[in-house]
Every structure is written in structure tokens, then in C-alpha cells.
Amino acid sequence: MVDITNRKIISSKIEKGEPLKLSFKYVNEKVLMVLNSVLSRLLSKSDQIYLLNSVITILRELIINALKANAKRTFFLKTNLDINDETQYQKGMEKFKKEIVGDFDSIEGDLKRSDFYVQISFEQAPNTIKITVANNSPILSVELDRINYRIQKAIQYNDFSEAYSEIEDDTEGAGLGIVLTILLLKNMGIDARNYKIEAAGKTTVTSLTIPSILKANEITTKVKEHILDEIDGIPTFPENILQLQRLCHDPDSSMDHIVKRLKIDPALSSDVIKLSNSAGIVPGKRIEDIKTAVVTIGLKNLDAILVASNARRILNERYSSFEMIWDHCNRVAFYARNIAMSLRMTGIVENVYMAGLLHDLGKIVLLATDKKLVKRIADIVNNRKITTTTMEEISIGISHSTIGALISKNWNFPEYLVEAINHHHAPYNCSPKFSDIVNIIYLANMMAGIEDRRYSYYYIDESILEKYNLLDINKFTELHNRLKSRFEPVKNT
Predict the structure, then answer these.
(1) Which has the closest alpha carbon to 289: 281, 301, 307, 277?
(2) Which of 187, 211, 235 finishes a domain?
(3) Beta strand pairing status for 203-211 and 195-200?
(4) What is the dihedral of CA 406, 407, 408, 409, to 10 degrees?
(5) Tell me: the pLDDT tens digits for 176-211?
(6) Do 93 and 232 belong to one domain?
(7) Residue 50 and residue 185: Cα distance in Å, rounded?
(8) Is this model's pTM higher than 0.90 or not?
(9) DSSP structure string for 5-51
(10) Would you state the pLDDT for residue 493?
């Protein structure tokens, strides 16, 4: 058994292809970060890193279920109820659901003092990765029957929206987790038979086998079909914007000529001034007119702002104004620009700024298509701390990142921008030549997510933190707080 805090031994076993066993009584965010790192390394070795978000989500569900089983036994012992007596079981489950399920942390001390534990095993084979989660609280036959029924029921669903209205759970809230797991497996192309829950004496064992060769199952929904039709119908950039962009790229262009062209369109000029102020390029200085904006920000930043402004105008005119999303994008753009500057990556400062301004443009189309479904997805994401794109893919068949990437391709955006929009939630899937741009957008977006309480530091990919020397939580927090304090005055200008 390896100490879960001993990263050196963990890394060594992964590299050597040796079985790895980790044990704990309660899970915290530090433990989750270690497990995320283990999965990242294992999946990278098998060229399956693209599965990371889905597999992490499943593993967390398995851990929650194991801990919940241990918590249930601890609760029954504490309340002097016999879990094997049907009448007492029903009485105990009512109390457990009322007192513990909604406030799981309340039993943390009891679990740590108990004899119950959770053990996770990772086994590497030439053609598979096997993950096993075991807990030493024996599952009751009635519980196993109920779980197997839910699994078989979940297999019948094609997408999460189809399942959501039918999920009923009068015991512990496990129905949702099983549906999530089965649909994630289906989406990855993993047969549900590779997912097993078994009683092994006094131990409950749940296993997941990931084959090396997979054929992803594409989820098709009416919402997805509608979205794809919408993407095809979104107008392209007007000629005046394209001409202004060409002027920005022309070394012989004069500032005066560009300013003159901008003044023809007062609404565009206003957007340029507004976004120039939000960039915070000159701290403490408010830009009041279009000429000052152009001279201050430079042509590269102007090009980025022109693209962002027009993208926003097109989407807002076609759908409606989603200021919260654009405000979030402004924050991410500001953070990304300043992260790049702090890392002395001067060559990509303008690129990450543009990517930040546009990284969530796909959300506009998604919200405009089915706001109720998006709200439902957001609630589950926030409650279970899973990746938004993962939930969107099994609910709709397409994520806001993919939607944004498709739109950006139609608008002939540069490749780096398409990559950043497409992979800002899964940076390990991007083209290596754009990894710094995508990683920085990912970090900036995670910072904004931490402020919204959607994520925490321990949900950030460890390899990316290590790459940019931010593995120390204090160092990361110091950088985040500094950027946040700089942005607040800019936001209010």
C-alpha cells in the first residue's frame, strides 16, 4: 500500500507500469488532486488523455458511493440500528438521508475514527487500464439489486436530458450518479459490462476497465441538431471589419487612416473604447476617445478587440445580450494577458487576450437554444464539481467549447484561437504548438471559476500548475489575488 501523499513513489510505480494501491478513510481536495494526477499520467501513457475529464468524473462518483456506503454503516452503528433488519433499515435510511446525505462533511470525524476505509487500485496492462474502488463495508443484497436495476435502466438512455425527468431515488441520491457514469461510458465507447459492482465477502468492489482501443459513441439529440443548424446560419464578418483587420496587419497603414475608418461606425468605436479600458493595458488611465484607444493599445490589440467586438455584436443581434458571459470573458482575457506577462511570454500576450475575450462564445448559442437545459446542467456541474463540457456532451451531444470552435472556423479565425476556444476546459487535448496559449486560458478560466465557487485550486490539472511553477497553493493564490485586485478597478471603469 502506497501513502497517498508520497508522490515520488506514486510516480515511480506509474512509470514502471506497476500496480498502484492507495487507501484513505475520507477524501478531501488534496486527495482528489493526487488521483487526478495519477489518471492523467496513466491515460497519457496509453494515448488516451482525451478521456481524462470523463474518467475523473466516474472515479469521483465511485469514491462518493464508497464513502457514502461507509458513512451509512457508521451512522447505523452510531444510532444503534441494525442495518440487516428491514424495519430498522427503513427507519435508519430515512434519518440518514435527512441528516447526512445533504451534509456529508458532518460525518467526516466519525469516518476517520472508524475502521472503514476506501482503497483504490490502478492496474496497467498492455491493452487496458483497470481501476478498482473497494470499501470494507459489505453491500446488502437489496442494495446490490437496486444498483443493478439502476444500471440496467441507465443503459437504456441515450442522453442525460432523456433520463433526468425519470430519475427517482427514494434512498440515498445514487440514481443520478449511476446515470452519469453509464452515459459517460457510452459516450467514451466503453461497454457498460466493463463497469461492475460486486460483493466480495465483507468488501464491496467496483471496477472499471478501460480498453486501449475505443470507438466513441456520438450522442445525437434534437438540441444538438438545432445547434448545428444555428451555427450554419450565423452571419460572417461584414466587409468593413475585414477591411479594418487588413489595415491592422498592413505595416504601411497609418493610425490616422484606421481611426478615420473606425469613426464611420460610432457603435464599433464605442465597443473598441470599452474593451480597451477593460484590457487594463494602461493601469489607472481611462481611455475616452477612439484615437487615444488606437494609439494606446496598438494594432495587435486593436485587431483582437475588432474581432471580439464584432463576434459579440453578431451573436447579440441574432440572439440576445448575455452580459454575464461577456463580463466573464473580459475577466478571463485580463487574467490571461497578465499571466502571460508574469511568465514573460511576451510573444503570446495579444493571442491569449483575444482567446480570453472569445473563449465562451459557444455558450451564447447554447443558452439561446435551450436555457432550461443549460440551467439544469449548470446545477449538476456546481453540485458535483464536474467539468461543464463533460456534462454538456452527455446531455446534448456537443459542448459549448465545440460549438465555439465550429463558429470560429466558420469565421476563419486563426488556428491558435480555434484551439483555445475548443480546449479551454481540456488543455491536454490541444495541438502541442499552441499549448502555452491554451494552458494560460485554462488557468485564467479556472481562476474565474474559483471566484464563482465552481472550482477550487485542487481541481486544476497538476501538470499545468507544475509547468508554470504554480504547484505551491500559496504561490497560485498570491498570483490570483494580485490579478483580481488589479481587475476590479478596470471592471468598474
Answers:
(1) 277
(2) 211
(3) antiparallel
(4) 50
(5) 888 889 999 998 999 999 999 999 888 999 999 999
(6) no
(7) 13
(8) no
(9) T-HHHHHHHHHHT--EEEEESS--HHHHHHHHHHHHHHHHHTT-GGG
(10) 59
